[in-house]
Amino acid sequence: MKKFIFIAILANLFYSCQNLNTLVNNNTMPQGYETALNMQVEKEKELPQESFYLSDSGIAYFLDMVSGNIKNNVTRTHMEGNAFDLYLGEYIALPTTAYNVSVIASPKSKSYEAFIRGGVFYFRSLYQGKYGFSLEKYGEPAETIVINNKSRYQISAFDLNNLVMANAEEKDLGKLQNSVQAFKILFPDNSKMKDVSMALFNQAVINNDKQLVINESNFLDENFDLTSEEKIRVILGKEETLQNDYALPKKYLSFKTNSPELNEVIKNDIIKRGRPTLEELDFMEECYANVPTRELADTLGAFYFRSGNISKGTHYSENKFGILPKALKEKMTGSFNQRYEEQKETSTEESEESLVVGSDFENLLRNGIDYYGTESYAEAILVLEKAKAQITGDSKEAQDVYYLLGNSYYLTNSLEKAQGNFEKISKDNAKYPEVLYKLGDIQFKNGNKSKAERIFGEVSENYPQTVWGRRSIIYLRRLK
Q1: Terminal CA-to-CA distance of the chain, rounded, Å?
Q2: Residue 273 CB neighbours (<10 A)
Q3: Nearest residue to 337 (alpha-carbon basis) of 397, 270, 285, 258
Q4: C-alpha distance from residue 7 to each of 1, 127, 175, 185, 187 (Å)
Q5: List of the chain residues with pLDDT < 70
Q6: Mind listing the pLDDT tens digit for each residue in 295-343?
């Protein structure tokens, strides 16, 4: 067990080192490097691989050997050459006049130490595979170094995977930890890696090993595109072992692309933990917009009150005349984005007459909508003011800018600027009742009670069936 813990700590250490994707796989390798990476190791620099009896005790011995290389800083020094063999966990030291080193290829693990110190290039990694580096020199062509980092012992991926599965069948967490860690070190690019890690995660849940559950779930989330079923397994495993002490990764919170089953599990998980992040609250808003219920509205209200957002907490907690609160997520982001895309597709003639100029207007408006939807009002104001500066007439897009700017200023208590933008909203705009209500609120806050009463009277009289008409009636009663 101690061997595994030490190796696991080292693995995390290596993952924090500089790392880049294998450029060969991304088809972005600089010209000439692909040939350089095929350099063969000279015979005198080749390191043999010994035969190995694969067993639980054998894997423990292998991990002990690798950890010994790390702890003892075992180093191989070569005075010349470009292609080398190296055993896992060892340093290679190469004298050089280079001033900079950059990676040109690495295994999928992308985890290693590579640096120049005192005129010597050093490299070390736990992970088996071919690594390529470019050493840049003053006034000379860059030099390519290729290192074949390999195990001292001959171990096949097929046989080691079978041992992992046998350990999983035995439900022996200690043996499984060792065999899975060995698999990660020896075969970082292997297609079975996700299954191997998932087997260890499942056993860690059964054994209630909290730290291992955290480590393996992080490894799975960071390195693989999990299916909905696999994400559900990870969430339920965290629920069982970590109780409420975790948050879900952002990549899990894609409501529109998730399966309905995954969305339901995520929703229930967030409710159970009771302390959602901002991203999780945004997910809950999407759940409510999709299927609004009284129970979910009350939950959202409680979450927002707990986070200090009194405005949203009040909105979702209202239960007047049995009518469910309107989904703010839909109002703030969905409707704007959807309508903006529809207008863009169908308004060729309209766009010519919209009098909106500036090639970056669309990006500014879209960014403003995104910032507004996440309640980043300062950022929304910044980009929307730039969009507003490009408006020379009236249009549907211009109306969106005025509304979003007005609300951003209103919600940050810049009432004069909010009023200036709200007053540009036309009466045929669907948002007009809301805007008129807020203009009344601004008048009242500015001490103009009579103007506020007149505006609230207009809203309640002309728009009695809207939420703003009903709120105006309530506001008028408060003013009496």
Answers
A1: 75
A2: 19
A3: 397
A4: 10, 11, 14, 10, 15
A5: 1-37, 109-110, 320-322, 329-359, 480
A6: 999 999 999 888 888 888 888 887 766 678 888 864 444 444 544 444 4
* Percent of the chain whose predicted confidence (pLDDT) is above 70: 84
Tell me if 102 sits within 8 A of 18, measured CB to CB. no
Radius of gyration of the chain (CA): 31
The Cα 414–Cα 296 span in angstroms is 32
Interacting residues of 11 by C-beta distance below 8 A, sequence separation 6+? 111, 126, 181, 184, 185
| Structure confidence at residue 110 (pLDDT) | 63
Q: What are phi and psi of 146, to 5 degrees?
A: -120, 130
Q: What is the pTM of this model?
A: 0.63
Query: Which position has the token pair 């040109």?
Result: 104
Which tokens go with 395?
């249009």
331-386 per-position pLDDT tens digit: 444 444 544 444 444 443 444 343 333 447 777 888 888 788 877 788 888 888 98
Which pair of tokens denotes residue 71?
A: 């702890």
DSSP codes joined into one string, 355-395: -B--TTHHHHHHHHHHHHHTT-HHHHHHHHHHHHTTB-S--
* Number of Cβ within a 10 Å radius of residue 118: 6
* Residue 149 · residue 128 · CB < 8 Å: yes
Q: Hey, what are 157's tokens?
A: 């991926």
Tokens of 87: 């055993």
Other CB atoms within 10 A of residue 48 CB: 7
Q: At what angle do helices 260-273 and 278-290 cross, to 10 degrees?
A: 130
Provide the 3-class DSSP secondary structure of residue 124: strand
Task: Determine if residue 327 is left, alpha or beta; phi over 0 gives left, psi from -120 to 50 gives alpha, anything else beta.
Answer: beta
CA distance 224 to 222: 6
95 contact partners, CB below 8 Å, separation of at least 6:
79, 119, 120, 121
Asked if residue 280 lies in contact with residue 247, where contact means CB atoms within 8 angstroms, the answer is yes
Q: State both tokens at 404.
A: 């979003």
Give 464-467 contacts, CB < 8 A, sequence gap 24+.
466/433, 467/326
How many C-beta atoms lie closer than 10 Å to residue 294's C-beta? 11
In the numeric block, the tokens 């939420």 are attached to 467
pLDDT of residue 231: 95
Q: Which residue has the tokens 């050997």?
A: 65
Q: By the 8 A CB rule, do 189 and 108 touch?
A: yes
